[in-house]
Amino acid sequence: MSVSVAENTPSSSSGDPSSHSSQSQSVPSSMDSGGSTAATVPTQDMVDGVMSSDEEEDVSPCGWGRLFPLGPGFQLVELIEDEYMFGRGSMNNCRFDATQFKLNAHYQAFSTKHLKIVRKQNNNNGFDVFITDLSSNGTYVNGEKIGKNKTHVLNHNDEISLSVTKNKAYIFQELGKSQEEVANIPEDFRKKYTLSKLLGRGAFGEVRLAFTKGTCHKFAVKLISKRQFSVSPVSHASIKDEVNILKALNHPCIIEIADVFESPDMLYIVLELVEGGELFDRVVSVKRFEESVAKLLFYQMVVAVEYLHSKGITHRDLKPENILLCSDKNETLLKITDFGVSKMVGEQSLMKTLCGTPSYLAPEVLRSAGLGGYSKAVDCWSLGCMLYICLGGYAPFSDEVEPYDVNKLILAGKYTFPKQHWKCVSDEAIDLIKKLLTVDPSKRLTIQQVLEHPWIKDEEVIEKANRLMYSGKQMPPPTVTNVKKRSSNEKEDEPASKREKTDKCEPDENCAANATSS
C-alpha cells in the first residue's frame, strides 16, 4: 500500500463525522523480506517524509522517527518534518486514500482530518512528540482513547489505533532510542529486521514485535537469555544444526521459524506472527467451549503433535499459552509454538524450569525432577490436560480446585469431573481424557491411538479442520482412516445417543455453551 501525499504544509482542524463499520480481523503476515538497496530506485518516490514500502535505507539522514504499519492499508511513514496530519482529506500530508484501504473494514470510520503528530523542542534541548485526536470516531494509544481535540504524549514503541482499538495502524519509534536499543543485537539481525514493542513475557524470556526492513512484514521475536540455562559449548556448536531442522518444519498448525540469531548472551528466534491471541485467554473469555468447537481445536493440536513426533521432536511444554489462535473466531486455525526451546537451550535446563510450573507436566517428568528418561508420551499427557481445560473451563490439577499440592495430585493422577461442569460433555470425550491422563506412560494413549479414538473420528470436524489448515491448497489424504459418519441409525459404540446427550444439553450458569463459531 502507499500513503498518498498532498502538501508540505500541515493543516489542522476538527475531524468530520464518518459512519461506523464492522470490525475486521488482522491476517498474520507471511514470511517475506528483502527489497531494494539504497542505490536502487524505489517503486514510489519518497515525498514529504513518507517512505515507500520498498525503500530499505535503515536510517534517514534527517529523520527523527518512524511509523511502522500494523493493519491493512497502512504504510511505513518516515517522520522528517515536525508536524504531520493524517486523514482521508486531500489537505493532509499523510492521506488515507480509499484505493489503498480496500481490505480495511474501518476505512469509512476514518475522519477527513483524523490525527496530528507534532514534534516540539523542550527545555532540555531535546524533543517531545505529541499526538492529537481530531477525529469523530477516535484515536487510541496503547488501547486508550485520546478524546477528540485532546493531546497525548507519544512515546517510543507506542501503538496507535484508529476508530476502534482492534484497528491497529502504527507502531511509533524514535530513531535515537531505537538505535540505543539495538546496540547489543547481532548485526545480522539488524540488517534484516527492526525490533519493536514488547508483546509479552514468558518463562524463557520476552517476545517482541519486529518488522522486516524493506517490506515491513511483521514477525514475533523470542529473546532467550542464555544466562538462565546451563548450555554447554557442545550445545552452542549444535545450535545451527538444530535451527536448520526447525526451519525445515512445514505444517499449517506449527508456527514457522523464520530465522534464529545468536549473540554471546542471547538467542533471537524469529517466528511467524499470529494475532488471534492465546488459547488460554480464549478459554478465560468464553468460560468453556462447546464440544464441537473443542473437538475442532483439539484435532488440530493432535495432528500438529503427530507431525512433530514424526520428525523426532517432543514438545515437552504443551499448554494453552503455547497454542496461538489465528483469528478472533472460535472455529479458527491454531498454531503450536515454543516447540524448539529444548533444542535451543538443552532438555534438562528446559525441564528443570518447567517443573516450577507443573500444571500440564506428566507425572514421569516430575518424578525425574526434569532430568530426562521419558518419552513422547509426555506430550499426550499435556494434550489430555488441554482437552480437559477446553471442555471444563479449568485445569484438571489445580490447588484452586482441591487444596492439595499440585505435584501430588499429578503424581497420583487425581482429578474429577464434577457434574455441574461436565454434565453437557459426552462420555466419549471424557473417555479420551481419562486415557490421556493415565499416570503410567506405557498405558497412556499414543498420538496415533488418539487419532483412532471414536471421539476424534468425526468426519464433519475433520473436514472443517482440513478446510482451515489447507485453505487454497490441495487437501492431503485424511490423517484418520475409517472415519465415522454421523447417522441417525448408527449403533456402533452407541455414539448417536451420546451425541444426543450433548446436543440436547440445556445450558445454565454452570454449563454454558457460550462459545460461538462466528
From TrEMBL:
InterPro entries: FHA_dom, Kinase-like_dom_sf, Prot_kinase_dom, Protein_kinase_ATP_BS, Ser/Thr_kinase_AS, SMAD_FHA_dom_sf. It comes from the Eukaryota. GO terms for molecular function: ATP binding; calcium-dependent protein serine/threonine kinase activity; calcium/calmodulin-dependent protein kinase activity; calmodulin binding. Residues 193-456 form the Protein kinase domain. The keyword Nucleotide-binding applies. Residues 1-41, 471-518 are annotated as: Disordered. Residues 10-36 have a biased composition (Low complexity). Keywords: ATP-binding, Nucleotide-binding. Residues 84-146 form the FHA domain. It holds the Pfam family Pkinase. GO terms for biological process: intracellular signal transduction. GO terms for cellular component: cytoplasm; nucleus. Residues 487-507 have a biased composition (Basic and acidic residues). This is Serine/threonine-protein kinase Chk2.
